[in-house]
Amino acid sequence: MTVTAPKACVIGSPISHSRSPLIHGYWLKKHGISGSYDRIEVKPDQLAGFLDRIRQGELAGCNVTIPLKELAFEAVDRTDDQTRRLKSVNTIFMEGGKLCGTSTDGMGFMANLCQTVPGWHTASKHLVILGAGGAARGLVDALITDGADRVSIVNRTLERAEAIAADYPGKATARTWSSLNDLLPVADLLVNSTSLGMTGQPPLELPLDGLKREAVVADIVYVPLQTDLLRQAAERGHQVVEGLGMLLHQAVPGFEKWFGTRPEVTDELRDLIIADITGRQAG
Fold first, then answer.
1. What CATH class is the domain 7-103?
2. What CATH number has the domain spanning 106-245?
3. pTM for this one?
4. What is the chain's mean pLDDT, rounded?
């Protein structure tokens, strides 16, 4: 009997920008695993047919990116409690003959936060999240699960923030952008979950004058590596958490499911991705 090396991939449309093959390729080489991880362009109307390839054993599983995360949630056979709250899937694998889906974004954010800020404890903290998209929902869920006392979701369109807060009564509150002057002085953690400040996107214009000195500032954007928000925060003396670590940590569970080894996020891997980011920017 011929044993086929496990194959995994990332799917989405467009997909050429994804750095997931670089991350997983590094781990495959580091652990001496005979396997592969590629990019595959999959449009929404092609998802069902693609997932059959996993069910049939052609692939061990995949990561999922835009615009397929919500569709993948509907298409898999089994999900966990957190994923059902989020209604979004970014990692798919086979287990017990069932096509399983989970979301690792929140875990990736928490792992990055705890690695960057040693001794961090979410319990009893007041956290302020900028934005109310899918990323914000994942962060709110992860932080409340980790014991946050209060989460304020700040968005220019209040209704979108209210839709998230409604799932966490007594813990999450929707707030307008104009309320930031009141929130910054009491925030223990400020997180940008929007695309503002990303290369090619409008800037995030947010003076941090009112933010208390001990507050931590995080950004899920990783291109550029240091956004204007993080630069401003660092200049004020705040601990800052870059977005790249979240990208790296969220990849860990999938690799373990597909290839049977739990990898580590190391400085060497981080430097590899930074070199790719800066190289593409220079090019």
1. alpha beta
2. 3.40.50.720
3. 0.91
4. 94
